[in-house]
Write a structure and sequence with these properties.
By secondary structure, chain A is mostly beta strands. Chain A has no helices and eleven strands. In chain A, the strands form two sheets. In chain A, strands 2, 4, 5, 9, 10 and 11 form a six-stranded mixed β-sheet that branches. A five-stranded antiparallel β-sheet of chain A has the order 1-3-8-7-6, with no helix packed on it. In chain B, strand 6 and strand 7 form a beta hairpin. The chains are: A mainly beta, B mainly beta.
Chain lengths: 110, 114
């Protein structure tokens, strides 16, 4: 079983829709959580950190459920420019242990 | 530039040849990571450097892979006797030590082994 698992998608939704995807992690020692965005043939870039109490950044909301060991990302009022692959990232107290999920592909259609 | 710089951006080589990939991290970043991403796949951790500590080499797939970081800055990933399965994009990332998970990536080196 992979340490970090994501639904690969693709999720194909119309512009303006709300879309959500989850990520599960297997190691309860995980301490920090992040969502990265990767555009086609580009490098990953940090989208947002995920805090225990949940957090918002504009149209994006991230939540963490430690008991069930999953994190989620919600995108409201989706834009064409949101089309990308979203990578779930988990890290541990040892900075070397930063694990990336395989990513969820999102495609927004006009 | 202010970002992570990698070279070459593209490298085509023949099976059995050695290749060197270079990464120049963001100035002041003490942590440096190498990842590999095959087509349509996620990022596979290869190696991590933090300051003057011994590197974490646990992700290197075979002894044909090695990496070094000179002077706590520039890093070189070397692949000896390349195989076709080594074809991938090799991504380097750096971070300010202690802020785990907030990585800044270079644009990657796309390696094709014929």
């Amino acid at each position: 079983r992979k340490e970090v698992e994501q639904d690969p998608g693709p999720f194909n939704v119309p512009e303006g829709a709300t879309v959500a995807f989850n990520c599960t992690y297997s190691n309860s020692a995980s301490q920090s959580f992040f969502w990265y965005r990767q555009d086609c043939r580009k490098e990953p870039k940090l989208l947002m950190s995920v805090y225990s109490s949940g957090n918002e950044d504009g149209r994006f909301t991230a939540q963490l459920n430690r008991a069930s060991q999953y994190i989620s990302l919600l995108i409201r009022d989706s834009k064409l420019s949101d089309s990308a692959t979203y990578l779930c990232v988990v890290s541990y107290s040892s900075a070397s242990k930063i694990i990336f999920g395989s990513g969820t592909r999102l495609s927004i259609r006009p | 530039g202010a970002g992570v710089s990698q070279s070459p951006s593209n490298k085509v080589t023949e099976k059995g040849k050695d290749v060197e990939l270079r990464c120049d991290p963001i100035s002041g970043h003490t942590a440096l990571y190498w990842y590999r991403q095959s087509l349509g796949q996620g990022l596979e951790f290869l190696i991590y450097f933090q300051g003057n500590s011994a590197p974490d080499k646990s992700g290197l797939p075979s002894d044909r892979f090695s990496a070094e970081r000179t002077g706590g800055s520039v890093s070189t990933l070397t692949i000896q006797r390349t195989q076709q399965e080594d074809s991938a994009v090799y991504l380097c990332a750096s971070s300010f030590g202690g802020r785990t998970g907030e990585l800044f990536f270079g644009e990657g080196s796309r390696l094709t082994v014929l």
